[in-house]
Amino acid sequence: MSLDPINLYDYEERARMVIPHNDWDTIEAGAMDMFTTRRNRTAFEALTLRPRFLRDIGDVDISTTMLGEEISLPVFICPAGSHLKAHPDGELATVRGAGMSNTLMMLSTGSNYSMEEVSEAATGPLWFQLYHRGYDLTEMLVHRAEEAGFKAICLTVDTPAPSPKERDLRNNYQRTHELANFRGVDRPQSEISGTDETPGWQVSRTIPLTWSELEWLRGLTSLPLVLKGIRTAEDAHIAVESGVNGIQVSTHGGRQLDMTMGAIEMVPEIVEAAKGQAEIYVDSGVRRGSDVIKALALGVTAVGIGRPLFWGLAVNGAEGVHGVLELLREEVNRAMAYCGQTSVKDLESNLINIPNDWGPNRMAP
Ligand SMILES: Cc1cc2nc3c(=O)[nH]c(=O)nc-3n(C[C@H](O)[C@H](O)[C@H](O)COP(=O)(O)O)c2cc1C
Description:
Elements: H1 8-18, H2 21-28, H3 35-46, E1 48-49, E2 64-66, E3 69-71, E4 75-77, H4 90-100, E5 105-107, H5 115-121, E6 126-130, H6 135-147, E7 153-156, H7 166-171, H8 189-193, H9 214-219, E8 225-230, H10 233-241, E9 246-249, H11 263-274, E10 279-283, H12 289-297, E11 302-305, H13 307-338, E12 352-353
Parallel strand pairs: 4-11, 5-6, 6-7, 7-8, 8-9, 9-10, 10-11
Antiparallel strand pairs: 1-12, 2-3
Helix pairs in contact: 1-13, 4-5, 4-13, 10-11, 12-13
The chain binds flavin mononucleotide.
């Protein structure tokens, strides 16, 4: 038997053995019944590949770009808070692992190392994921991100209210690690973390941000703006009309609102609505190289992984994150070869079978 993990699920199994119970629960949990978390996977499974043979696949190129940033495979690290849950080097290890695989990392507002510390350790491109924390704190974060060399701002829009996981409520889960981007900021914890964090995690504590304030946000920086969490063609329309540069389709790993479709199912209508005016990315439920090819075949530029970064981190720090990404690289390469494709930037149409009821058919008339 091989001692090294041979797929992402091996990393998951091993991580479960080393991450403390309550931290494990909060990483793996989805909202409520976890229907959407499961559907992220079943939706990928509903797409099937159409392999093509007897072609020259000697020279396969899976490198691509995200808003001009070169990445060696079409997979990036999603923003996720508190990497100290999985490894003492936290986000410093994650960014090193991403760099070893020559790909991009999005750093969460809720990181345990500050954006300046992470930038210092980075060898690859970094984007800053922004949670709006009120005008002055958001302005402070955006200016610091630009100063620290981050290449884009990725505003997460899909958490208008805190959504405690039921496992966290049962475990009475308490955040213990520092939110390093707010070090020295003299504000109540609720303003910094965006939630009340009493057992009920009161909704009233969240700070609203609306479409009309996007212009204000854009005015703070010359960095490109990506919206993370868009789930409908209607919002994608408004996003491109507002001039955003990228849309990251996501269900937040099913961690916020339960009972939506899987993220990959939302991609066709959003690609259609964006009409090439913004790059499209997707995350939620990506576990195999074939998932990556399926997403790219639907018009996505690159895909993100969330929970698997914690698995890699817990198993072997930076090397583990690198290991997770390299397994995906191998699987993407294999899927490309089996589908007779030589470039991820130029995938043939008809590469996948799409269920009849996906895409624009689902949109309201
Ligand atoms: C423990 C954890 C923390 C997360 N924190 C954030 C965050 O701070 N900001 C954010 O935009 N998304 C956050 N996410 C969501 C991820 O960016 C991503 O959308 C999701 O994990 C992708 O699904 P997957 O875990 O199935 O790969 C978090 C996810 C996890 C698992």
